[in-house]
Amino acid sequence: MTVPMLMPNGPAAAVGMDIAARGGVRTAVSACASSTEAIANAYNRLQTGEVDIVVAGGCEAAIHALPVSAFAAMHALSKRNEEPARASRPYDSNRDGFVMGEGGASLVLETEEHALARGAKIYAELAGGAVTSDAYHITAPDPEGSGAARAVLATLKQAGATIEDVKHINAHATSTPVGDIAEYNALKRVFGDLLPGIAVTATKSSTGHLLGGAGAIEAIFTVLALHEGVIPPTINLDDQDPEIPLDVVVSPREFKGDNLLAISNSFGFGGHNAVVAFRKY
């Protein structure tokens, strides 16, 4: 089983066989943006009428000596080993790297007509999804956030939305010194003076960084925030970085209203940017 275990398309193929999917099994391989890109790709297939229903998501299980050592050698991981539960601290002045997590998630995405016909419970509307690239550096994000900003804007265009419509952002926010600021710069490019009024959360503070699986689980957090009317908190934020003046949600916050729109961001090594938007149903 060594070869199937090493195939990037292995998990998607396994799920496809399990559910007898014959409309084409596709694998997005874009580092930490992979599962968000998978959702964006599914959105586009649904929009073109190519399919009526798609299972989209991602997973990662990389807690092993080799990948952990490799990320540590890159100085990407937190060194707060004496306090592991408090080590992932996006936006905190004392953040020093991410904490690796493991897991996965998938979403059943389908046309409204198909969902209603089978009596499905609808949690939210997938309103848009877009992918861009930085063409900047193999591991570092574009510090100005131009590629990430373009992904947000393209997603909003697909959603038929404006920047004024966005009320919540589930940020990529991995707790790295460089990455968190780069994402802030991207959001500032897009939202400008509106940014302080948008509720931002960084759920990697609780889950760690699931790498290729991160985007899917964070998309679900975003969907549930809309469906349940509560935004999950960012934990471990003791001293917010003054260079990142966001409205960070630090305790569960009510999120209710009509026509609510939220986005979820994912960015990966290689300069991959993927963003998806969800609207309250």
TrEMBL record:
Keywords: Transferase. The keyword Cytoplasm does not apply. GO terms for cellular component: cytosol. GO terms for molecular function: 3-oxoacyl-[acyl-carrier-protein] synthase activity. InterPro entries: Beta-ketoacyl_synthase, Ketoacyl_synth_AS, Ketoacyl_synth_C, Ketoacyl_synth_N, PKS_Beta-ketoAc_synthase_dom, Thiolase-like. Pfam families: ketoacyl-synt, Ketoacyl-synt_C. PROSITE patterns: KS3_1 (PS00606), KS3_2 (PS52004). GO terms for biological process: fatty acid biosynthetic process. Residues 1-280 form the Ketosynthase family 3 (KS3) domain. Belongs to the thiolase-like superfamily. Beta-ketoacyl-ACP synthases family. This is Unannotated protein.
